[in-house]
Amino acid sequence: MLAYMVRRLIYAVPILIGVNLITFALFFMVNTPDDMARAQLEAKQTTPEMIQAWKQSHGYDKPLFVNNESSGLDTVTETLFVQESLKLFMLDFGQADNGRQISEDIQERMWPSLAIALPTFLIGLVTNIALALLIVLFRGSVLDTATMIVAVAIMSISGLFYIIAGQVLFSKMLHWVPISGYESGWEMWRFLILPVAIGVFAGLGAGVRWYRSIFLEEINKDYIRTARAKGLSEIRLLFGHLLQNGLLPILTGVVVIIPTLFMGSLIMESFFGIPGLGSYTIDAINAQDFGIVKAMVFLGALLYIIGLILTDLSYAFFDPRVRFDQ
Amino acid sequence: MMAPLWSDYMIWLLVVALWGWGLILRRSPQVREQWIQIFQSRIAMVSAIILLAYASVALLDSVRFDTAQKGQITLLDMAFESIATQSERTYSAPFADREYNQSLVTRDNGDVEQQYLPLKWVQAEVSIGWATLQVLLSAALLTALLVGLHLAWRARVHKLGLAEYGRNVWRDQTRLPWRTAYVTVLLMLFVWGWLGYLSQFYHVLGTDKVGQDVLYTAIKSIRTGVLIGVLTTLVMLPLALFLGISAGLFKGWVDDAIQYLYTTLNSIPGVLLIAAAVLVMQTILNNNPQWFGSTEERADLRLLFLVFILGMTSWTGLCRLLRAETLKLSQVDFVTSARAFGVSRLTIIVRHIMPNVMHIVLIAVVLDFSGLVLAEAVLSYVGVGVDPTTHSWGNMINQARLEMAREPMVWWSLFSAFVFMFLLVLAANLFSDRVQKVLDPRTQTR
Amino acid sequence: MTAVLDLRQLTLQAGSEVLVDSVSFAIEPGEIFALVGESGSGKSLTAMAIMRLLPDALSVTAGEAHLHGQNLFALPEMAMQKVRGKKIAMIFQEPMTSLNPVMTIGAQVSEVLRLHLSLSGRAARQTTIDLFEEVGIPNPHERYGWYPHQLSGGQKQRVMIAMALACEPDLLIADEPTTALDVTIQAQVLSLLKRLRDRHGLSILFITHDMGVVYEMADRVAVMQKGRVIEQAKTQHFFDHPTEPYTQKLLADAVPVSEFKPVLERPPLLEVTDLKVHFPIKKGILQRTVDHVRAVDGVSLSIGKGETLALVGESGSGKSTIGQAILKLVKATHGRVVFQQNAQSHELVALKEKQMKPLRQKLQVIFQDPFSALNPRMSVGEIIREGMQSLKVGPRDKAGQQKRVSELLEQVGLLPEHAQRYPHEFSGGQRQRIGIARALAVEPELIICDEPTSALDVSVRAQVLSLLNHLQRQYQLSFLFITHDLSIIPAVAHKVAVMQAGKIVEQGEVEQVMTQPQHPYTRQLLDSAPSLIRKRLA
Which one of A137, A238, B66, C67 counts the least CB within 10 Å of its CB? Predict the structure, then answer.
């Protein structure tokens, strides 16, 4: 078990290096340290000396991948790539273009993101599974067909439309909730309720269909037949045996998402003015602030890998067949 | 003179490729049987006709001419010439004959007054009801003609009398649901005819901020949506096929390398990866103005870059599926038997693996299509989508966000984009559902 | 005495297609009633209909099923749930998949007790442990908390039996309960069922395709064919005087031939010496190889020209791996495989794939599962031509190849026009014939037959075996015949090798091994075979 964990963590390192490599390649393909210096220095006329000084003070004076001036191991380590990567691995994301520390921003903005993403995720999960089970109970009936058509329709509408329509209907016309904004503390719920409801509803179509297909696949298995032959009622069958087994394939798709909930939702946060990591990212993209984009890419990849490991762990926990002896 | 853009070439190349593929597939009786089974569902038939209509609009919009007076125009522009050129000053509601907002007008006597200015291009005297009736009649006539031709052809194929075959269709006793198809065609012709005919006299879906007809923008957006949905597949498919099958078949270090590649790509949040790549692409385009001669070409190049980026980031899912399926197939007895015959790896791939994973590819492609159309809107909102000058539903929705905040609301841009997009995505989703139901061996047992 | 179950005129339909047609029988208290038939005869559907667990697409269109005078088909679903598991219990063919994989076996059994007898948690637990004890699960206290995957197939079937017995049902329906098990395990499970019948006075509806099992178990027998019961009799009478021609054929095919083949003295075509195939077990952070699974562990055998060597063993004994290693489809860890060709010896293990290719023509293979052995996307003609094209055997032009395909199809008892069709249009037996034609197409000298008849019904099995024998005489073919089925060995083999856990424990001429087994394992195997087969073999 422990050996397995260690192996997975070690395996994560090359992936993160790969992620860094991709962002680096993208970044420096168009944006040389000289360009950055010129953009950052506010003086109208930049001299080569000023650029050099800026690069030195920000650590951008080293070559990208291979340092020919050094010898031995240093040819690789004394480079921008390795230095920057190391910083990222220490979760030191450096400064944003506006001079603020990215790490601090992230710590601060993580919580509003979570406040909206976590309820959306949990309520969505429970609703989807409950509805899917209900439909499986009535499988093959008119209700089944009708729900599936509604589900496809829900899937076929752009999420942007749900948000705009929701804001117009509930905020602008009915005045039930504020149109956007955020407040910490208990008053938060007034701002959260609409985005969470929209998030849950928009995910309903795809979610219910997916869970339904998982349950339908399970329900044709032999052990369900055994359970029926025992004399179990259909309800006990669904909640006792089917749900338990159906949860396993659901875990694969769901657990990996949990850590990435910290990243927030780009669209939702930006529409509802939530000061989370999603809107942070979107602002950075619009301002072309590569420092933040890079940090978020790394963070996202890290959380994803943590999610993968968690998925395996959850299997070990929930599925008696999986053991990490090997 | 013809003046195609790069994307026009690609879209027609794809048409030719699809046609060729269809010819190859026709030879296998099994595949034909499967397609017939797909179209036996009424929903699939209706969806396919709607998809075909969208596709033909996109194709019409990809035949481009250089004209002296109007610059570059497409066949579609010619068909909708009236609304393509007839711009108003600013917002106007659907079927309105005046502008939506009051303007300050200085009268001859010097008084300044607020008033709703009349629209330039609207002929309000044309009766909508009368026009509708005219269109309905012409659509019915045209449908009757098409149906008659089709009936005659099918009757000949089945060696039945025209009357007898017609009766079968009427009673819905044909193998494929032709009756449903005919009704759909009638409805489509009517709707398109109605929009086209009335748009000569009215702004059927209103006008936007700069007075551009919204119907025109929505129709022009079809090409963008279809293009992103379809061409991305063209980029993604060879990668996914090649890497997925190689990983599954060769195992060992090849498998490790490919798995590493897609886990790495997968671990980067999708939007961020696309955003970063698009930002890079923008800078490249800005630094190389010599690559394009006009704004159209620039927008087109940007579209193609976007398609390329989407393709490069979206192959991982299919690749994983193909790898798993190939792993499974490589253990199956018929592959073992081929190996016992000394059949080469390449032949095993072409003859045994590829035909048996095609259903996965097809299901993935049809499913991805709707996802990509929806993604375009989100990306445009984030600011990393198509060029702002390109007509697209994403740009329309993006703009609508501000319009909805106005008092009174300007709702028709959002409405139009929503309806046009919804129909396409819904049709694609319903069709993919059917494809999956017929082709996926797991759903067949149910 | 009144019947426990009285089934009257049961008719089942899927749409307008009649699957079970007016089936009637009655089961007396304490009786084992066998329902025999080949696949598709409707025997399992009949059982599911009694339990009212038919798939939605099927419906009972006529008939009644009386359990102690109560018509089950007239009960509301709620009342039927009280019958299932309590008055009628059922065990199934696949013990591997029939238990809920994420629930402990104890919980699965005590669930029935709590449901039907409203036992408290502790009482249910105790009763469950007693039941485990009774069905022969060692350490029942400890195993109560085990999960199904921790048990072997035979033990899982015992858990199923415990679950079925929990509420002392009036009737136990056993649907092919031992088909998926090895012979030695089958014998144990069968004797357990018999013991339980005697102790509890249980009535059993025993569904099977295996005449050997019927002979062993049943008091009375009913034979089903195409949805109808065609013959019903007491077991002894049934085996001595079958009246229907179909039944006679079924009985004759159950043990194909009882005469031993004369032993041939031929120079060896293939000689395997000390063959080992080991698969590494990797562990730890660095995935170092800590141990090996010894799938094949030092096997030596030889096959002469025109001779058949049967390789017998239970599942997991490594018998299929030997075949794969000879064909170089898995890598041998150690040993020599020498193949005689054109008066030359070729050592296969050391050969590169390129050097192997010319020899592949001489070594071919036939598989167990006729459904996965043929590529569903290729026509039968393409399938048979594949080897001819790849190994450049026979005519090189397409017309010539097509002619050859026609000949081959006729040779294996199919029609030339079948070449245009696709595998899914054929039955299991026909597919197996296509597989044989495919192997024959390259004119091999040795064919490795990997359980080629295990998935087939007995009547089809007999046909395929006689086809193989016929081809052997015609072309002097040699076969390595891998099987777990002792009953067919005299019909096909000249020599036999018995495998256990990667090793050959005994080999020799068929007659000698079958009649005077030396090794205890061989004796155990033979003793486990149903007495009908033992009787014919002896």
Answer: B66
